[in-house]
Amino acid sequence: MELMEKVAYLKGLVDMAEFDPASKETKVLNAVIDALDEMAKTVADLTEANTQMCDVIESLDEDLSEIEDDLYGEDDEDDDYDEDYDDEDNEEDDSDLYEVTCPTCGKVFEVDEEMLDEGEINCPKCGELLEFDLQIDDPPAEETVTE
Questions:
Q1: pLDDT attached to residue 121
Q2: Among 22, 32, 36, 73, which lies 20 to 30 A Cα-Cα from 89?
Q3: Which residues, in sequence order, are CB contacts of 94 under 8 Å at separation 6+?
Q4: What's the chain's Rg over C-alpha atoms?
Q5: Which residues 6+ apart lie within 8 Å of 125 measured at CB?
């Protein structure tokens, strides 16, 4: 039974009881039932408004998902953000970043000195293990000519 039906049932019980309409108790009981009736109507209105808002929110969520798919592509969720990143804002960090191209898949990505010091890294696209050998040989000593 819904709330409105329950209030109507209470009204019917009070009417069938044939209370004295002039008594204080009957007036209080009728006032309580009237208040319950108003509350039930308000709850029904709020429930309807809530349902409508939920429908609108669901529709907006679907629209937003479509826009995200159009902007970022459906399968781009696994790709790194740095492909479209504007490096002009972080010019001071550019000195520590190095561009690396995966020989297997051709993905170009950036690594910093810390990653290079580790000696190896997995390609973010294909997972291929890339190894770095950064040992710098000492330049050959200049030979001096003696006469």
A1: 87
A2: 73
A3: 87
A4: 38
A5: 79, 102, 105, 107, 109
pLDDT 10s digits, 30-57: 999 999 999 999 999 999 999 999 999 9
The pTM assigned to this predicted structure is 0.44
Cβ partners under 8 Å of residue 120, min gap 6: 129, 130, 131, 132
Q: CB-based burial of residue 97 (10 Å sphere; 0-12 exposed, 13-18 middle, 19+ buried)?
A: middle
Residue-wise pLDDT tens digits, 11-37: 999 889 888 989 999 999 999 999 999
